[in-house]
Design goal:
The protein is built from three helices and nine strands. It has 211 residues and is an alpha+beta fold. A hairpin with a 7-residue loop joins β2 and β3. 11% of the residues are buried.
């Protein structure tokens, strides 16, 4: 099993601990990335056996998932490896060799028709493209968040302005009512004398009282 240094993967934490590693691995044929041109396949069985094929030459090995440290142990006759799930998307499953910055890359054979990198440079470009899209998405979200905050602030300012205008109008109306009342209290006799309707009522009242 070949492993590779790929610094860009150190930026990622794209494997959820809630995912079921056995479900991900089993009942699939995994194309193992290498830069030699060999066709290397791994088939993980639910019973812990592992079928490996290099250019059609089959070797039987074993594997197990260790929940205690969230690692996958792959054992060949000559050598065993401890690997930790590091990255997973629809195309690739990256495993980090324990205690190192080296990675092994597995591609679901169903995806290998459309995604089958031939070199570490191609693989690096794939992750750089993911990183670029992630940065663009983060910027888009930041821009959207900023726009939403501006809209919220604008609505808040407009609402405060409406409240201020309403309060000012209320104060003005109260002031007018107060002044009207003061004027009435100070000048009610004069006002009533000038009021024709009041005069007519007053005359009618006097006439009625004289009867």
């Amino acid at each position: 099993m070949k492993t590779y240094l790929l610094d860009i993967l150190n930026r990622y934490n794209r494997f959820s601990e809630n995912l079921d590693v056995k479900t991900i691995l089993c009942n699939k044929s995994w194309f193992i990335f290498n830069d030699t041109g060999d066709k290397e396949l791994y088939i993980f069985q639910e019973n812990g056996s592992l079928i490996t094929s290099v250019n059609g030459k089959v070797t039987n090995a074993t594997w197990q998932y260790v929940p205690a440290n969230k690692s996958i142990i792959i054992s060949f006759k000559e050598q065993s490896y401890m690997l930790h799930p590091a990255f997973l998307d629809k195309n690739i499953f990256a495993l980090q060799q324990d205690g190192t910055n080296r990675y092994s890359f597995m591609i679901d054979e169903k995806q290998s028709q459309s995604f089958q990198p031939k070199s570490l440079t191609e693989l690096k470009s794939y992750f750089e493209n993911i990183e670029r899209k992630r940065i663009e998405e983060d910027k888009r979200k930041e821009k959207l968040w900023a726009e939403q905050q501006r809209e919220i602030n604008q609505r808040r300012i407009e609402e405060e302005r409406r409240k201020q205008i309403k309060a000012q109008q209320k104060q003005l109306q109260q002031y007018k009512n107060k002044k009207r009342l003061e004027y009435w209290e100070q000048n009610q006799d004069l006002i009533l004398q000038k009021d024709l309707f009041y005069k007519q009522l007053f005359i009618s009242k006097n006439k009625w009282e004289k009867r």
